[in-house]
Structure formats: C-alpha cells, structure tokens
Amino acid sequence: MTPVLAVLEPDLKCPQMALLKAAHLAQENRRRLRIFVNIYAPALVRATNGSSEHFERAKASLEHSWRQRIAQLLQDCSECRSEVEILLAWEKDDESALRDVILADIPECVVIQSGDEGTTGLSRLLLTPRHWILLRKAPCPVMCVSSLPWRGAVDVLAAVDPDQDEGALAGLNAEVVKAARHFSDALDGTLRLAHVIEHPDDNLLLIVGEGLPTYTVDMKSVRDYYVQRLNQLCEQAGLEHSNQVLLEGEPAQALAAYQSEHAPQLLVLGTVQRDPLRRLLFGSTAEKIALNAQGDFLAVKPDGFQSPWQD
C-alpha cells in the first residue's frame, strides 16, 4: 500500500506541521507514514575542518538529535498509530535526495510545509524552489500546508473547469474531484466544486464582440451557463447542487479570498502537463493559484503525467 510522505524542513526548531498533517492523513487512510528530512549541514562540514573523526561524531550527534525530535513530534501527535519509517538523508544536492526517496516508493501524497507570510491567522503561503521542484516534478499529488493545525473538520474545495470535456466529469476534472473526495473523507469535511468566471476584457468585447457566443456578453447568461455546468458536475460526482461555488474575478485572487473567508479549507487544483520542451511548468493558472493560496492546497497531476525524474 502506498505511503504518505512527510517532507520535513531542515530546521530542528521548526514546528514541522507537515509531519503532523501527514500523520493525520496516514491514520485516516490506513497508510504507512514515511518521514523524510535531508539533514545535510554545510556549517557542520566547515566546523570540522575536514577531520573525518570529528565530522563523524558531529554527524552522529545531529542524526540522534533529529530522531529525538521526530520521536517527540510523533508522541505529541496522538492520532499517529500508523506504521512509521524515518528516512534521514545527507545529500548536498537536495533535489537528488527528494527524487530518490519519492521514486523509491511513490507515495499517495507528498506533504510539505510552506512558509507563512504573516505570523497570525491565515496568510499567503511562501513557496521556495524546493516546493516548485516537487510541484513540477514529483509523479504524485503534492500538498503544501501552512503552519496552522487542523482542528475538527476541514472543508475541501475542488477547483474545476466546466468547459472541459463538454461538461462531463472526465479527464483532469475527474482526477481533481477524486482526490478532493478522498481527502475530504479523511478530514471529515464538506466537498464543494468551484469555478471562477473571468470577466471578458472590455477591449476584447469591442474588437470581437459580435463573434463571441451570446452567453459571454450577458453576464447573467454567463452565470446561468456555469451554474448549469457546475450542477451537472455535482450530479456526476454524487453531490447536491448546493455544493457548488461560483466565483467571479481573477481565479487566483478569487479562490484565495474564498479560502481565507471559509478557513480552514483545503484547496485542490489540477496541474497541466506541458509539451516536452516546457514540461517543467505546471500551468500558469495553477501557479498563480498556488502563489495566492490562503491555506493548505493540494496539486493533483493529470493522468499520464510524465515526470522528468522518471526519464
């Protein structure tokens, strides 16, 4: 059975919310929990001045400290009754370390903590190059979480595109809804499907207004159209029509505002597979949403996603 992988921050004092949330998911889904941290410390290498004896003692002490820290975190996490495997890496190349541990046993989900822009309440997540590596290259879903704990039920918002597949719950929409349902069950929350209507640019309407479909010019018609499409997706997903969320504006900002207003909430979005020359990107809209997220979000890869790590 595939595990849940918690990727820890290489800082002993960090609260390591990724571990606590990954433990919750592993417990609820009856999965193994793998805990990974790259403990490579350039300062330790410099401090030992190339002495192998001093280096080995210092490295062993650091490893011991990390195992004690992880044991304490697990002890504080009363939910964690899953089988646990601790993986300590010493790799100067952090991407290689991440690649090796993920490809060795491709997890159900990778959970990694993101920095928070603010110190109180929900705030925009700060994503480092390490996060983007996982979002773009990991051949599995990636969950970026804030430092705020989950307390009680956590609702799940699945961002879907009703224009795809002629309104059928197929392709990437199906993958997003499937993952969202899976995690909403684990978090005891309500699952909702969301879409953001982007208002047509005024200049575009002036230039090609006559060539646009009628429903794109009359905003009431636009809303009615997408309400109907979301209703169809809800029906296919076995959800009530009331479980749809129709927003307006720029997608990243609208979803972030809704997520902040209805916290705590997990936002689930799909990534886009690019052509071979640009496949390290995971979709401009998805990237903007990730950069504006006001809480935890899960990035789902499309069916057939080809990771450059697997070449």
From TrEMBL:
SUPFAM superfamilies: Adenine nucleotide alpha hydrolases-like. It is found in: Cytoplasm. InterPro entries: UspA. Residues 176-301 form the UspA domain. The keyword Membrane does not apply. Keywords: Cytoplasm. The keyword Transferase does not apply. Required for resistance to DNA-damaging agents. PANTHER family: UNIVERSAL STRESS PROTEIN E. Belongs to the universal stress protein A family. This is Universal stress protein.
